[in-house]
Amino acid sequence: MPTPNAAALExxxxxxxxxxxxxxxxVPTHDELRPILTAAARTPDHGKLEPWRxxxxxxxxxxxxxxxxxxxxxALGIAPEKIAKGVSQxxxxxxxxxxxxCPKPSDKVPxxxxxxxxxxxxxxLLNGALASGWGANWLSGWASHDHEFTRRGLGLEDEExxxxxxxxxxxxxxxxxxPRPDMDRITTWVSA
Length: 192
What we know:
The chain has helices at 6-14, 30-40, 59-76, 80-91, 111-131, 147-154, 183-186; strands at residues 23-24, 52-58, 95-101, 135-139, 161-171. With 192 residues, the chain is an alpha+beta fold. It has a single domain (18-172), classed as 3-Layer(aba) Sandwich (NADH Oxidase), CATH 3.40.109.10. Strands 1, 2, 3, 4 and 5 form a 5-stranded antiparallel beta sheet that branches. Helix 2 crosses helix 5 (111-131), helix 3 packs antiparallel against helix 4 and helix 3 (59-76) packs antiparallel against helix 6. The longest helix is centred in the middle third of the chain and has 21 residues, at 111-131.
């Protein structure tokens, strides 16, 4: 019979991302962020390829990215209502971690599995921050999918992509619980 970790299961059953706009200083220090990043790096990684990396974005870097997002919005012809949201996710944050998919050549591990591993690292980072008592939210947005923005703003190579930007800070407002999936509707049991 397995030995359950009731506290960990309860955390996973009740975890809740916090809206990025409600996250304020203080934010984790380098020493406080390191175990969160370490937890994120323990994600499933077939072949031990480490097909992801982290870019920690502090306040001045986020301000620079907000300006670049505004510049790129004009060049891309982004709709005005999308511009504000795309810029504010950088301008309003004090600390964020960009999780970067950086696939490695492999005959055994397809690139799609490497991308899934990077997504798992995002979730592990998010859960690590929440488990450490911080508020956190996993974002993406139009700017993170723009190659010119990611090349100029984050120094990404052509084969690299932003999988997510996890904003971390102190929660200032707990959102109400939201509806959760109907497990009977989304689950199929196959016994034969």
